[in-house]
Amino acid sequence: MSELNTVEAEFHRVDRRPLRTAAVVGTGLIGTSVGLALSARGVTTYLLDRDPEVAREAAALGAGRAARPPHPVDLAVLAMPPSAIPSALIEYQRSGLAHYFTDVGSVKLPPQRTAATAGADLRGYVGGHPMAGAERSGPSAARADLFHGRTWVLTPSARTDPAAVARASELIRLCGAELLLMDAAEHDRTVALTSHAPHLLASLIAGRLADTDPARLRLAGAGLRDTTRIALGDPDLWTDILRSNAAPVAEVLREVADELAVAVAALDWLAGPDPAQQLRGERELHHLLSLGVAGRERLPAAAAQPAGR
Amino acid sequence: MSELNTVEAEFHRVDRRPLRTAAVVGTGLIGTSVGLALSARGVTTYLLDRDPEVAREAAALGAGRAARPPHPVDLAVLAMPPSAIPSALIEYQRSGLAHYFTDVGSVKLPPQRTAATAGADLRGYVGGHPMAGAERSGPSAARADLFHGRTWVLTPSARTDPAAVARASELIRLCGAELLLMDAAEHDRTVALTSHAPHLLASLIAGRLADTDPARLRLAGAGLRDTTRIALGDPDLWTDILRSNAAPVAEVLREVADELAVAVAALDWLAGPDPAQQLRGERELHHLLSLGVAGRERLPAAAAQPAGR
């Protein structure tokens, strides 16, 4: 944490000029939402997408101009899957799109390492990850207030110029989000626990409904809908995320698998004839359920958001 | 299904008199909500609870009268955990509380078997299960519209008097719910899949947050909140439910554990150095994620409900 503390101290000393110009590369849900938020706060925002039609769609919604900026902008936001970030960073650094770069990918350390190896200038780049999203994708799902009240992580490396952090933190402020500085590896281990492993488990539960008799699905209630909602996420994007964070996610899931084996053993004892084992199984399940209540109660309260489907 | 069809045909021939009097035994969330719905529709409803203070609390909310009825009522609703149902059914049948009985337990076959073995009169009883609930418990969480638009299963046995089914179906109509007749064993296997196994998995995920550093919890988003919401359920009640349905839940969880092992293997391949294995892992994960989307999209749309926490 001492390295992070140094970065934090330095970036507070950096001259904070307002963000005047920005570029968003990748105008999907997140990129377009960034464009909407920045444009609403008076930042001249340029929108780029590998599909120019999608950039024009975002522009039509008010997210900015679907054009390459005539001069380097203050900050470029790379809004694309983690695996696409290193090559995009190098390409746009070389073509002089912006003075500083950040991204919004769900995984931080591997893209940064790959970019460094491939020749990116890590001084002008700080990784970022806003804790916001939706099941739907594309510009039409975007909202200017998507990041409002949400945590937005920045993961500066030892090489990051404090001015890059200052620029990205100004972006975060303009989006109404709350900055959290974090070590990249620690970020990746954390989202493996809070997002990626839960996503895969939700997909496994939801997948079991794919060939279930429709009459039986009438017994599905609000609980099942909530618990599997995240499984609606785009499989292409989520394969990319899981691939980029494979080892930390596997570590969390191995621990879940161990606990699942304990739960199944407890259920087998309960289904069996031995009263002593039944009692043991009952205690084990009660313990698991109580731990679940304790863990869930520690989650921060929900930010105001429209209801999911 | 032929046995169920016979029951269905017979109960449609039964004389449908309006429900005039009812008793609710157990005035928690579900029982009090039943009382509120019946009282609002003009049914004289008597409320009983092992804790008389809780019954008086439900009565004060408008769910009925906290008293034993002077004469047998048309229908008694046993609103208690599955394991408490057999002895309550026998006790209240013997004391002549009601002409017919139903319950609202989440598991159907084992309580019915236990009740039959212990001497209950199965002719006057039909098992029931409304697909509604909340994380909070007790009378204060009850709502007259809790069952509105929800599926409410009845699981008549070969011995059930069609008049009992007619009585319970009138209760369901008055609560604004939709009747679904189902075989008890089929019901139990189905809720193992749609409710009990997902609950335990949500508890396992939530349990991992119990000792997580608070700073890391700032990375928890709406997805994690939704996916673990059901883990807030009362551990006592849920231990009872899981114990009563142990074998079917264990069967579902064993299948989930097998798929989890596949997912972990795929992640290990992706984290490893072999490009052929990486490709294989990527395909496997994409398949699991796509199946999750397909399964989730088959769930019926949400009934209008207040937002969960």
Summarize the structure.
The structure is a homodimer of 309-residue chains. Chain A is an alpha/beta fold and 309 residues long.
Radius of gyration of chain A equals 22 Å
Work out the largest interface and the residue count of each chain.
Answer: A-B, 99 and 99 residues
CATH architecture of the largest domain in chain A: 3-Layer(aba) Sandwich
Give me the CATH superfamily of the largest domain in chain A.
NAD(P)-binding Rossmann-like Domain
Strand tally of chain A, please? 7
Please trace the helix and strand order of chain A, writing H or E for each element: HEHEHEHEHEEHEHHHHHH
> If helices are DSSP runs of H or I spanning 4 or more residues, what is the number of helices of chain A?
12
Strand order of the largest sheet of chain A: 2-1-3-4-5-6-7
Oligomerization status of the protein chains: homodimer
Chain-averaged pLDDT of chain A: 92
Low-confidence stretches of chain A: 304-309
CATH class of the largest domain in chain A: Alpha Beta
Secondary-structure-derived class of chain A: alpha/beta
Reported by name, the CATH topology of the largest domain in chain A is Rossmann fold
Strand content of chain A: 5-15%
- Bin the helical content of chain A: 40-55%
Distance between the termini of chain A: 39 Å
Number of domains of chain A: 2
Please give the largest β-sheet of chain A.
7 strands, mixed
